[in-house]
């Protein structure tokens, strides 16, 4: 099991985006047992939905999952889904300055957000282009979906320099 800390940092604590309804999950307590919440001014049944708590259980990306790319710390799309849906609105601009294989940008695009991704490793950058539908399959090795085999490719020989992708969802 992997643990990662996520910080929610806002510029103005009085005014920031938090779309609770967009990330609501099933409530497993009072609602399941159809209990009445007597703390409310008009007692009503517990809501079957709730905002996720402080600890999120999201499976790490495994080799056999369709979203898997050859990156040592690829984040699950489900994680970015929740973060982006909660903290931005359609048409907003998302920045990921350490993009890896551009999971953030791919999810941002799917959710109708614009994004800017920056990645130092050229091969990861090319995977990002593919995930964002910005390259043709013939462009490079990384433009093809990953060919999965039981043996993993662990060596890459790219020279580091700065590359960035700007993706506009419109
Ligand atoms: C933790 S990974 C990001 C994984 C990403 N969230 C994903 O799902 O693929 C961090 C990435 O930052 C890149 N990186 C490290 N230093 C960088 C820099 N100075 N500028 C741009 N990218 C950098 C690394 O190459 C690595 O791919």
Task: Describe, in plain words, how this protein is organized in 3D.
The protein is α+β, with helices and mostly antiparallel strands. It has two domains: 21-53, no CATH class; 56-143, Vaccinia Virus protein VP39 (Rossmann fold, 3-Layer(aba) Sandwich). It is built from three helices and seven strands. It has helices spanning 77-87, 103-110, 122-131; strands at residues 25-26, 36-37, 44-45, 49-50, 93-96, 114-119, 163-167. The strands form three sheets. Strands 5-6-7 form a three-stranded mixed sheet, with helices on one face. Strands 1-4 form a two-stranded antiparallel sheet. Strands 2-3 form a two-stranded antiparallel sheet. Strand 2 (36-37) and strand 3 (44-45) form a beta hairpin. Helix 1 (77-87) crosses helix 2. It is elongated and about 65 Å long. Bound molecules: S-adenosylmethionine. Residues 71, 73-75, 98-101, 103, 118-121, 124 line the site of S-adenosylmethionine (SAM).
